[in-house]
Amino acid sequence: MTKKNPVGRPKGDSQARKKLLEAATQLFVKHDYDKVSIRMVANQAEVDAALIRYYFGSKAQLFGEMLKNVSDPVFSTLQHGKQHTEVSDLAKVMRAYYTTMVDNPYFPKLIYKLSGLPKEHESAQQLNLMIGSLGRFKSRELFQKLLKNKSLLDGVDPEMAQISFLSLMVFPFLMPERLLEANQIELSKQKFLKLADHNVQLLERGLFKPKEHSNAAQ
C-alpha cells in the first residue's frame, strides 16, 4: 500500500530540504538576493518549487534558514567562547570559523555585502534575525577579561589585540580577487586551514603570555 504524503506536502525527494539549502547557499553567495528566484533555487536543487513554500514559507525565510545553516557551527563555538576566558578558546573560534568558511568561501563576502544594505531590505532583516537568534560574540569583553586575567603580554592594548584577532579571522575570506592576483597568492582549502593554524600561532606568540606564566600571575 502506497503511503500518503503529509497534508499539504507536495510530492518530492525526502532529501529535498537539504538540497534546497545547498542550492540556496550556492546561488545566494554568487548572485544578488533580488536576482535569485524561487524557481532558480528549485531548478538548482532539482526539486519541485512548491517544496520551498512547504519547508520554508517564502524566499526570505529560505534565505534566513540558509544563513543560519551555514553559520551555526561558528556561532555555537562563539557562544562557548562567551563563557570562557582562555586563550585556547580564541584558537577554537578561529579554527571553527576557518573550517566552516573554507567550504563556503563566498559566504563572508555575502555577509559583508548584506551589512551594507538598508535595514529595511528583507535579506538584511534575515541577517539581523540570524544574529539576534544566535547571540552576539562580544570579543571586546573577552579581551578585557584576558587582560584582567593577565593573559596578555605586558604592554599589549586589549582593543588593538581584539582588532588583530578579528582581522586575522575575517579578512582572508574578504580579499578581492585582484589583490590576490596582484600578489600572486592562490588560496585553496588546504591553504586556508594551514592559515588558521598559522594565525593561531601568531596570536599565541605575539599577544599572549605562555600559559605557565599567565597561570603563575593569577
UniProtKB/TrEMBL annotation:
Origin: domain of life: Bacteria
Q: Which residues form the HTH tetR-type domain?
A: 14-74
Which Gene3D superfamilies does the UniProt record give? Tetracycline Repressor, domain 2 (1.10.357.10)
Q: Name one GO molecular function term.
A: DNA binding
Ordered alphabetically, the record's keywords are: DNA-binding
Whether DNA-binding counts among this entry's keywords is: yes
PROSITE patterns reported for this sequence: HTH_TETR_2
Q: Please name one Pfam family that this protein belongs to.
A: TetR_N
The feature table lists the DNA-binding region at 37-56
According to UniProt, the name of this protein is: Transcriptional regulator
Q: Which organism is it from?
A: Agarivorans albus MKT 106
